[in-house]
Amino acid sequence: MDWYTKRRFGDLADDAAQHFGDREALVFEGKRYSFAEQAAEVDRAAKGLMAAGVEKGDHVAFWFNNRADWIFIAFALAKVGAVMVPVNTRFRTNDLDYVLRQSDSKVLITHDRSGPIDYLEMVRDVITLPASDESIDDPNFPALRRVFIVGDETAQGTLSWDAVTRMGADISDAELAARAASVDPDDPVIIMYTSGTTGFPKGVVHSHKLLRNIEDRCFRLAIAPTDTILNYLPLFHAFGYSEGALAALVTGARQVITETFDPDECLDLVTREKATIMHGFEAHLKGLTEAQEANPRDVSSLRSGLFA
Description:
By secondary structure, this protein is an alpha/beta fold. Helix content is 40%, strand content 17%. Strand 5 (107-111), helix 5 and strand 6 (146-150) form a beta-alpha-beta unit. The protein is globular and about 55 Å long. The two termini are 36 Å apart. The model has no long low-confidence stretch (mean pLDDT 96).
């Protein structure tokens, strides 16, 4: 008998929707989603992944900046039993080449462009894409079969995320439920790469049991459904993913995410959204305190946070 009840990442959005329903769950750049709407978006993404051929156990590289779709796609991957491989959005061609190859990723999901960064062009520099909508057959990446592009462009040799989600309309609720039920909490759910400061980055494999640690930390920090977590940390990083995305769904706290870290934007959001929890590193704390000294705001809603 297990000493605690095992949970799965892919169940978190549904569990939170069942408990909190129409309460606000997620805020990004003015768009607001209830827990029920968030769970529906996760399901829409999950059905698309299934229809596009993502199988249980497939490694899926996710090279994506913070935004609401990050949450939907990440938890959809877990729901269909895929293993997410978050890729640092500061990586460029050589780093992408290494992670795709070393992780045996079958699918890459990324932007066409984010701000000044042309992700699609870097994908073309690294991967030999097919001339049509056929499966990728690049000897440098023997496991890779598909690239999904989130954005406005439709690119040769890739599948647009809009097309993926449209394909998902053919997947029934029952089919998705059966796939989700087949996922074992002991299965791998994420491969998180180290920074590589002392050598090549290593892919650290985690199962769904990681949730036990997150539940314990949330309990000790007394995070509750009444809290609002301001999350400017990159979601591809363990800190932002665990203490923001996962912690919010585990506890029912509201999460406000930003695409990047801007001290003034973050402090304005603390005031406007009444954020109660904010995590970060010492460089963030320096930027936040300097911005607050230059332009004081009412940040009295803040009550807790971890600063490494």
